[in-house]
């Protein structure tokens, strides 16, 4: 753990970090709890005044130093990420660049936190609006994007003048600790960033109760997000939630099918389907369903599954046994309700690692678990629809609202459907929409607030109105 500028915790019980490709123990990290959680808030609170009083330029300079060090270490960090999370090295390298783009983008955005003056009703008054950093921020992050889910929070928080306490997922702590190490090397003052590894319930309980923590930003499952939202209410913390998704991928009869197939494979099987905005269900208009399904199946059959450190691997292992079991359950359920497995469908290399074949199931419908629950694995169910209004209704019929995808070459259809979809992110002929400069977040039970873009820094600011009478 990195708390108060010190590497701590060797005296504590240790947690094994497992490589999902071969189930080998690759490291051990301290199992921190309430005491360490409080120490981290003590440190972040101590540092807040000095850090928030630096100029935006001074903070920007230090963030760019951090960005440079991350860039210089991205290959080493990508390998570390593949070993602790499983994604293929080429994807891990891509995540390092994506993660680092939040540091550089917010290093600049922090210099554009503008206030305003408002015309007064009284000539002897002046009305000013200032934006100020919210204070100590608690960040809790998931295992599927071990670098990006941290920098997407810490980048804007530090740029805004906040200090942070971070709890990474137990499965992927090494990337988080490396980011902290490079922040220290970059000269970001000690106590500004604190990383606590260990018991999520014990750590979050302390942070939720501590009134010095003024913001909770969480990325993870909707279930845990709801728990944390309730806990944050006791001290009325600002809260951002990036939660689960259930993305529909809609293929209209006038879509470019080759473009759609390329996009759905990228969206669905990136990170072995363990991505919040990955396609969870495919809807194809009736007249092109057979052609699309054949093209998609051919592309999926060609995907290479294996250890992400090996050359030419497209799909790595899943994070753990539980994740594999969920995909098996969804496949079996779909088949029991009339689904037809046209490729994949089986666990792979069972004794070796947590692998599952990239799988396509046709004849899917909403009676199936995979058409309602987040699979979070390499399973693509294909359902057929007849009319535009029907597919919009079916796509929206879910508590989730994170991402949706529409493929059509008709601009009127594209605008009509995109505007009716109840989702925070719509990929229109685009399967990979995520970039640092755009707002990322969901409707309904997929979350609150946005990360990325100028929206993302507002989450770490308070608005102060100063009325001046003279
Ligand atoms: N919307 C997004 O941007 C986004 C991004 C990535 C993942 N996700 C979602 O996250 C989920 C997968 O990630 P996961 O399995 O790590 O989610 P998770 O909710 O199980 O865990 C996320 C984090 O919360 C911690 N946690 C777990 N239980 C907790 C508790 N009771 N109290 C406090 N903290 C707790 C974990 O240790 C981890 O750090 C999926 O639903 C996925 O859609 C969403
Ligand atoms: O899984 C969640 C990530 O936010 C996905 S993305 O890399 O930001 O698209």
TrEMBL record:
Pfam families: Aldedh. GO terms for molecular function: oxidoreductase activity. InterPro entries: Ald_DH/histidinol_DH (IPR016161), Ald_DH_C (IPR016163), Ald_DH_CS_CYS (IPR016160), Ald_DH_N (IPR016162), Aldehyde_DH_dom (IPR015590), Aldehyde_DH_NAD(P) (IPR012394), Aldehyde_DH_Superfamily (IPR050740), Succ_semiAld_DH (IPR010102). Residues 10-466 form the Aldehyde dehydrogenase domain. SUPFAM superfamilies: ALDH-like (SSF53720). Keywords: Oxidoreductase. Signal peptide: none annotated. Belongs to the aldehyde dehydrogenase family. NCBIfam families: SSADH (TIGR01780). This is Aldehyde dehydrogenase. It comes from Scopulibacillus cellulosilyticus.
């Amino acid at each position: 753990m990195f708390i108060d500028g010190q590497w701590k915790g060797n005296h504590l019980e240790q947690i094994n970090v497992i490589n999902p490709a071969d189930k080998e123990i690759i490291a051990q990290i301290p199992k921190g709890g309430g005491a360490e959680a409080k120490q981290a808030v003590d440190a972040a609170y101590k540092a807040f005044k000095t850090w928030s009083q630096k100029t935006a330029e001074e903070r920007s300079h230090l963030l760019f130093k951090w960005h440079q060090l991350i860039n210089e270490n991205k290959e080493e960090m990508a390998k570390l990420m593949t070993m602790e999370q499983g994604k293929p090295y080429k994807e891990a390298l891509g995540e390092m660049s994506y993660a680092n783009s939040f540091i550089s983008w917010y290093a600049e955005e922090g210099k554009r936190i503008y206030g305003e003056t408002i015309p007064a009703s009284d000539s002897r008054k002046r009305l000013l609006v200032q934006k100020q950093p919210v204070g100590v921020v608690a960040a809790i992050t998931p295992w599927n994007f071990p670098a990006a889910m941290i920098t997407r929070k810490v980048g804007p928080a530090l740029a805004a003048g906040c200090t942070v306490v971070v709890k990474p997922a137990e499965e992927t702590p090494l990337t988080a600790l490396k980011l902290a190490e490079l922040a220290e090397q970059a000269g970001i003052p000690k106590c500004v960033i604190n990383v606590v590894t260990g018991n999520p319930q014990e750590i979050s309980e302390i942070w939720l109760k501590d009134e010095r923590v003024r913001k909770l930003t969480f990325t993870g499952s909707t279930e845990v997000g709801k728990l944390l939202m309730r806990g944050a209410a006791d001290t009325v913390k600002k809260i951002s939630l990036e939660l689960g998704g259930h993305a529909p991928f809609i293929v209209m009869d006038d879509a470019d099918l080759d473009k759609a197939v390329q996009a759905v494979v990228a969206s669905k099987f990136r990170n072995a389907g363990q991505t919040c905005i990955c396609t969870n269900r495919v809807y194809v208009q009736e007249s092109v369903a057979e052609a699309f399904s054949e093209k998609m199946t051919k592309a999926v059959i060609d995907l290479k599954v294996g250890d992400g450190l090996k050359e030419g691997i497209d799909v790595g292992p899943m994070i753990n046994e539980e994740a594999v079991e969920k995909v098996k359950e969804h496949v079996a359920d779909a088949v029991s309700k009339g689904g037809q497995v046209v490729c994949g469908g089986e666990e792979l290399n069972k004794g070796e690692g947590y692998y599952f074949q990239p799988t396509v199931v046709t004849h899917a419908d909403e009676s199936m678990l995979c058409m309602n629950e987040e699979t979070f694995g390499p399973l693509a169910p294909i359902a057929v629809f007849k009319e535009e209004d029907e597919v919009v209704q079916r796509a929206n019929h879910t508590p989730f609202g994170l991402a949706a995808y529409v493929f059509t070459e008709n601009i009127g259809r594209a605008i009509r459907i995109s505007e009716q979809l109840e989702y925070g992110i719509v990929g229109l002929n685009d399967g990979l929409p995520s970039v640092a400069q755009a707002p990322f977040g969901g409707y309904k039970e997929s979350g609150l607030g946005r990360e990325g873009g100028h929206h993302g820094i507002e989450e770490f600011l308070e608005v102060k109105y100063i009325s001046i009478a003279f």
